Amino acid sequence: MTPEARHSAGGDRLRVLRRVLAEPARYVRPWYIAYLLLGAATLGLLPVLMPLMMAALSTHLATVALVIGGYNLGLLTSPLWGMAAERWHAYRGIFFAGFAVCALATAAFPLLRSLATWLPSAFLIGIGAAGASTVAPLLIVDFAPPAEWEPRIGFLQSFSAIGQVIGLFLASLFSHGLYEIGLWTAAALLVPALVLSGRGLPIARRRRAPGEPDLRQRLDARAMAVFPRTAHLVGILRHAHRLNIAGLRNLPRTLGTPFAWFLLSWFSLCFGVSGFFTYFPLMLAKSDGIKPELSSSIYGLAAGGGILLFILASRWSERYGSLRVYQGGLLLRILGFVMLLVPFVVSFEARTALAAASFGIIVLAWPILSVSGTGLAARLTPFSQGAAMGLFNAALAGATVIGTLVSGPLVEKYGYAAIPAMALVGLAGAMTFGLRARQR
Prior knowledge:
It is a single chain. By secondary structure, the chain is mainly α. Helix content is 77%, strand content 0%. It is built from 17 helices and no strands.
């Protein structure tokens, strides 16, 4: 990419950001608060408390991966809800039902005591989160004027990120044995979300004129990359289903292109670290002496502080190119996981401090990877940006589900040392494949 093109792309991102900050009331609706509460419950409280509860009630560590894998599989129903919403104009019904199903399944989860019941409950939580999160961006791209898509979706992403940070700090209050109360708190947060999910929803759907192209295929993902997405899994639900389907249909066209190498790199990255984000509260507590309430607080602080990195990463990508920034993010995560693995290999007195620092580094690397990865997907694609974002998210989703399920047997057989080892293997693959993804 030429310096002029990089400057133009960076200018687009900052233009959208300035527009949002200048007129927040124009782009925010009351139902965005419901999305914030959903983020607090499903991206903050549940990822911390569900693994802790599973480990406390089950004698098999692999149970943790199976239950979190069931939740992730529920998230993968996202395209079904998108198609149903548009085909039958059931936006309001699916949006409301998503919150209701998620709330009921979350409330029931602490009452269950076997894998046979935890799995379907976790799956239903994922389905509910998928339904609400899939319809949310459709309420923008199917109803709002195209000129307002990026700032509105950017605000939506920011609300979700703020919700996750709030949820992580709440999780720290319940992570010292009050798992059931914490999960019921997550369910309780979704009750006001049910009320707010119907406030300010659009009424008349914007219809395309005959012959008008589907502008969603040109949705500027680079402009939206300045907005926070602090969760590793949040990308599964980030884009409308048509973008994902369009991407899958165009997959054969990527073969042999730099974009294909980048997708392999992104898949390898997400596969490698998925086990860590499944087991981190248990691993840090059992192996490194960091209590779950402290690890939740570290995560919340790093994620909150990392919000600034989304803006900085956008500027760095503009100045140095997305590929270099992406490689820098990979190196930062490699450093974090090497630090996490060292005490498993050699005796290290300050193990707790080292683990806390490495955890912060791992979390802080995500904004850099997210922004630069989004930019690379948009720039390297041989077809529309919308279709590219579909494949970008499909790679993340598939890698996360597969990696989560693989991590369970590894931890069961080799212990928690398998987690940073698995991450480093994935990151090494990501770096190797990423070197082949040269910008055009």
